[in-house]
Every structure is written in C-alpha cells, then in structure tokens.
Amino acid sequence: MRPIYLLLCVALLVSAVSASNVTLRPTASDTIAPVDESAYNQLLAAFGGNNSTHTGGLDIEAASGASFGVYAEAVGPELASVIIFGIAYLMMFLLQKSLLMPGVLGILWSGFLLWRMPAPYETVAGVCMVMAITAVIYQLYKDYR
Question: Which of 9, 43, 74, 117 is buried deepest, with most CB atoms within 10 A?
Fold first, then answer.
C-alpha cells in the first residue's frame, strides 16, 4: 500500500471520529491517590536530611534501602529482587551472547544468598538459583545443537 493511501485513510478515520460526539473513555470522578514519599524521606535522611551541620557522612544501608524501597513498594520485595537479578543476566547475555558464565556466577551468588541471607529472602535466592541453572542448561543445549 502506498504511503499516500495510508495517510488518506488515517485522515478520513480521524475526521469521522472527530465529527461524531463519541467519548473514547469515561473521565475519572475521583482524585488520584497521593504518592508515598517515605522512600524519598529515607534517602534524604541517609544524606543527613535538611540539617546543614550533619557531619556523620552517608548512611549506605539507608540509601540502598530507600532506592530499593521504591521498587519493592510497586511490585513487592521478592519480585523486585528477581527483576534486578534478571537484569544482570540480560545485560551479560546481550554483551557476551552466552549464558554459561553468567549462569555459573548466578549459581555461586545464589548459593551465597542462601547461606548468608535471613529466612524471608530464601525465596528470592531460590528463584535466582533456578534462573541460573536454567541459564546454564539453556546454554549447554544451545551449544549442543
């Protein structure tokens, strides 16, 4: 189809929709819920807050908790951890075209998580271990074929 015909079809469709009194979606009757600012306040407190005489330095644990808290509030802490762990796999796969080394590193990292993390994070470590083993099996299958 030539571009001029496509442009003509779109123009006719727009004119037909705008000529009729059709509402495409209903408008909202309630206001939007306010945004939770607790992560911002935690991050600001990690840098010393609004106190200009703060000499304690940066609280790394509070800063990392605040930056992770934004994602944990949106999708839950377990899924946010898996997404962040999966981004590392994706980037290594895009850069190396192989999942064998990222998979082996993931198995080692997941073993460390299982060994050192508290009980609520065992699910995250288990999912990371499954992702790493799946990556290794996929790479071995891809190399075999």
Answer: 43
